[in-house]
Design a protein that fits this description.
This protein has one domain. The chain is of the alpha+beta class and 79 residues long. This is Dihydrodiol dehydrogenase.
Length: 79
């Protein structure tokens, strides 16, 4: 497990072999929320257009609206 942190977030990153194939396990250490990403999901992030990444990283779109809901809140599109 590795920790990636800056002034905005602290996330643990590890490789998980326990599921159906190898996945990257990401845990938000502030909330305990966990997300697993497989190779296709990771490749999609690499190939995503900059506009998509800007929308994903804009905390006003999702993260700061209702921090208790976590990643189940789908709000990258129009509200």
């Amino acid at each position: 497990m590795e920790i990636v942190a800056n002034e905005f977030a602290t996330v643990s990153v590890s490789v998980d072999d326990r599921g159906n194939g190898t996945r990257l396990r990401l845990e938000d250490l502030r909330t305990g929320t966990v997300r697993h990403l497989d190779a296709l999901e990771l490749e999609s992030i690499v190939w995503a257009p900059e506009s998509w990444m800007r929308a994903l990283l804009d905390p006003s779109q999702h993260r700061w609206r209702d921090a208790e809901r976590g990643p189940d809140q789908e709000s990258l599109g129009e509200s």
